[in-house]
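User: Before I run my own analysis I want an independent prediction to cross-check against. Here's the chain; please return only the structure tokens and, at the end, one sentence I can use as a sanity check.
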Amino acid sequence: MAVTVPPAPPLPEEALREVYAYPDPARPPDEQNQYSDAGRLAIKGKAIAKMAFMDIMSVRVPARELTEPWINEYLEDFANRTVISYRWLQRVQCPQHVDRHSPAEIRRLFYTYVGAVGTAHPYTVVKQWFLRLMPAY
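Assistant: Structure tokens:
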């Protein structure tokens, strides 16, 4: 039976441009565009993703099993599956020397998208999105 992936939360065009373009550290952030710094979005996204993940798992998994290594491993697997399920890697524009399939690039892409969602929407949108994704995995 095929697994249906729920739609990802929508993002404005300026956010999508930042998510799918490889970050250029030499480019100064555009102060008029809240999405213009992919590095900031990725840092924010990692914090939001971990918080949403912990909120969900705290009712699904016994507390003694919610260790930092378990959380990190499961969240990394969740990020990988999410990026692959949405076929986001095909949209990334990056330099030739960057391996778009590397674990680091997959995590960067996932956390940048989550950070953009967290900028555009309330936290509950991220949590509900994760809840809809988790049964698929």
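Sanity check: The chain has a mean pLDDT of 90.
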